[in-house]
Amino acid sequence: MSSRFTRRRFLQITSGTLGAAAAGTAVWSLGAAGAAAPGEVTTLPTFCEMCFWRCGGIAHVRDGKLWKFEGNPLDPQSRGRLCPRGTGAVGAHYDPDRLRQPLMRVGERGKEQWKAVGWDEAIAAVAAGLTKIKAEHGAESVALFNHGFGQRFFQHVLKSWGVINYAGPSYAQCRGPRDVGFALTFGSGLGSPEPTDIENTDCLVLIGSHLGENMHNTQVQEFARAVERRIPIIVVDPRHSVAASKAKYWLPIRPGTDLALLLAWCKLLVDEDRYDRGFVQRHGHGFDKFVKALEGATPEWAAAETGLDAELIRTAAREFAAHRPRTIIHPGRRVNWNGDDTQRSRAVALLSALLGNWGRRGGLYVSAGMKVKPYGLPPYPKSDKPLADNPGHERYPFADEAVTTGLRETTLTGQPYPIKGWFVYSTNLMQALPNPAETLAAIDKLDLLVVVDTVPSEIAGYADIVLPEAMFLERHDELLTGWGRRGWLALRQPVVAPPHDQKPGWWIAKQLSAKLGVPESMPFDDIEQYLKKRIDDSGLSWDELKRDGVKLAAPEPITVEDGLSLTFDTPSGKVEFFSDQLAAKGFDPVPKYTPPDKPPAGFFPLVTGRAPVHTFSRTQTNPLLHDLMPDNELWVHASTAEQAGLKNRQFVKLKNQDGVLSNPLRVKVTQRIRPDTLYMVYGFGHANKALKRAYGKGASAAQLNTKYRTDPLMGATSIHGNFVTFVKEA
After folding, report:
1. Can you give the CATH number for the domain in which 271 is found?
2. Are 250 and 345 within one domain?
């Protein structure tokens, strides 16, 4: 880290300001949606929300109708190209299964019996329900669950009203262990996008990272160029993924044993003097204790645990060590696998430290950001109650964000105080959280469940009130300030009108603020007034930002080669090979491997992953993306399929160790997976009948995730701890 603001510090400073802020020469035609002459195509820049990468794009409107969406060449995320999901955003606008008008439940919760109502009645009902909870229990007894950029105004209004409990699955069900593991080591999390300098690296190690399938746009583009440059790529994965097909070395590891491999790699680099001694001597803390803790972590030991060949473990390590510091051990995302994931991610960070790649070109750069003036809004009220998910930081000592499953647990137990209302924005908790039965039991404890979404997700089926939001090509949102090689600012602006009675999130939040008695939290007449004031106050051009869609910050050093001075925001002020703060809390100061559970006889560990054309469980009804991948399939090794009497494309059900049975899904017989492991893509098997195109298609991995472990350091919940067996279908 340099002496400038660290990323963490900057986020702390700006977190209460609601927000975030353009030039360059426009390279497309200008025009507002619907304002063109017959047959004419107009374009407008905005940024994508088909996933969290939020690439800048250009929407094309023909004859007043949305036609196509492609990358903005000025944007550092898309670089002029969108992934399949981004280009498929047009289908989200035209999706016939979209929520169309506000709905209020009229029957038993979960029976999906509704009446359509007007916006005033719906928002008044939400406000009345929230106000009743506040009067009886306090505003702290309302929890906000959110995912996606559009939640900013809802969070702001609810915090202004007194809500203190809010969490997104992106933390405990995705990236949290990684960021905490790196913060414990280097003093800083990684953020999004991860600061991986794949563009300049000379060796790339992917350990459970499926570049090419998870479609993190910028990284996938850089990965493709890395393949063209013929750099050595090392892939650790039970499955021969797309990335593994490009690799020099594929290490088909036994699920749940990554930490054994990482520790053996650390020991080999030390024993063979292949680590960066200069970096360790200048910046390392507790190195001798770290080395002592590695005793016994030999390649032979790791081979017995991982199922890999000991010589392959050595060869791969020598390969990536030879290219240091221009080597990347990719930190990954969605790393909540086995319940010890913070320590696993810390091992990735320690291996990176041995390579001396922090703040180095071709390694992990230190992200640059951009500052934009806040609007100037009233402060949030203070509460004398603790955060419900992690009171006193005793439940999860190193969590630096709220934990969704912690809020669910509080809802179930009523401790430290009852949670009686859930406000759920754009996240399908039935698919995102482990053990859906626990989520349903928590919902039964609620007085009010409000869902804001664009599609009728499973969680919406249990709501009391459903508010249909305009999708991202139909609305303004908060300003996006991005972190990367250069900071940037992006503007989301509506390209077409919503097709039915959907409303933009900022508008819904503003109406709600008035009915909750906190209109001062949204003291502007319309969203453009708010956005323009922030841009003007920052000395930027509103017209240029509207024209170009993106504004890059001035360059600043992000690597040592650029002149960056490294500092580390840890207790020791150094890279912590041995963590005194972990030891003080009773945790292993150096990661320690624990073997995973063994499956019952006839069962197999189930691992899951992503598809390049779908985003979680949100896009299966999108007509364009549905046509590309209408369901998921089960990867089964050919020898395993033969023993089980399974044929390619045969339908089977899966039964987990707790007796939960999945929907039918097709078998994919392949050599590209370990014989003792099964694999499926996450996000299918929808149970809400309003999702007409996706209902019952494929199987839900979330449904089978009944057994999970919680990371004791920060609260992440595992998704790869379940075992399944085959139940044949006719």
Report:
1. 3.40.228.10
2. yes
Please report whether residue 709 resides in a domain: yes
Q: 434-442 long-range contacts, Cβ below 8 Å, gap at least 24?
A: 434/173, 434/405, 434/702, 434/705, 434/706, 434/708, 434/717, 434/718, 434/719, 435/705, 435/706, 435/707, 435/708, 436/702, 436/703, 437/706, 438/408, 438/412, 439/408, 440/110, 441/412, 442/408, 442/411, 442/412
Residue with tokens 């030999």: 298
Q: Is 390's pLDDT higher than 80?
A: yes
Prediction pTM value? 0.94
Same domain, yes or no: 191 and 321 = yes
Task: Specify whether 412 is located in the same domain as 349.
Answer: no
Contact 552, 488 (CB under 8 A): yes
pLDDT digits (tens, 9 = 90+) for 410-461: 999 999 999 999 999 999 999 999 999 999 999 999 999 999 999 999 999 9
Tokens of 313: 């473990």
What angle separates helix 310-322 from helix 299-306, to the nearest 10 degrees?
A: 120
Mean pLDDT of 283-301: 98
pLDDT value of position 524: 97
Query: What proportion of the chain, given as a percentage, has pLDDT over 90?
Result: 93
197 and 340, same domain (yes or no): yes
CA 650 to chain centre: 33
Q: Is 55 within a domain?
A: no
Indicate if 161 and 180 belong to the same structural domain: no
Same domain, yes or no: 160 and 226: no
Q: How far is CA 289 from CA 6, 285, 477, 578, 590, in A?
A: 28, 9, 49, 6, 8
Count CB neighbours of 399 within 10 A.
Answer: 24
Task: Report if residue 228 sits inside a domain.
Answer: yes
Angle at 327 between CA 580 and CA 201, to 5 degrees: 135
Instruction: Give residue-wise pLDDT tens across range 556-609.
Output: 999 999 999 999 999 999 999 999 999 999 999 999 999 999 999 999 999 999
179 and 290: one domain?
yes
What's the CATH code of the domain at 718? 2.40.40.20
What is the four-CA torsion angle of 130, 134, 139, 142, rounded to 10 degrees? -40
Same domain, residue pair 446 and 313? no
Mean pLDDT estimate for the chain: 94
Structural domain boundaries, residue 210: 175-367+566-584
CATH code for the domain in which residue 141 is found: 3.40.50.740
Q: In which band, very low, low, confident or very high, does the pLDDT at 36 lie, cut at 50, 70 and 90?
A: low
Residue 38's pLDDT band, with cuts at 50, 70 and 90, is confident
- What does the pLDDT look like over 618-675, one tens digit per residue? 999 999 999 999 999 999 999 999 999 999 999 999 999 999 999 999 999 999 999 9
Is the pLDDT confidence value at 106 over 50? yes
Q: Examine residue 183 and state whether it is found in any structural domain, yes or no.
A: yes
Q: How many structural domains are present in the chain?
A: 3
- Taking CB atoms within 8 Å and a gap of at least 24, the contacts of 648-654 are 650/728, 650/729, 651/729, 652/726, 652/727, 652/728, 652/729, 653/699, 653/726, 653/727, 653/728, 653/729, 654/606, 654/678, 654/699, 654/704, 654/724, 654/725, 654/726, 654/727
pLDDT at 685: 97
Close Cβ partners of 145 (under 8 Å, ≥ 6 residues apart)? 166, 167, 168, 169, 404, 407, 422, 423, 424, 425, 427, 429
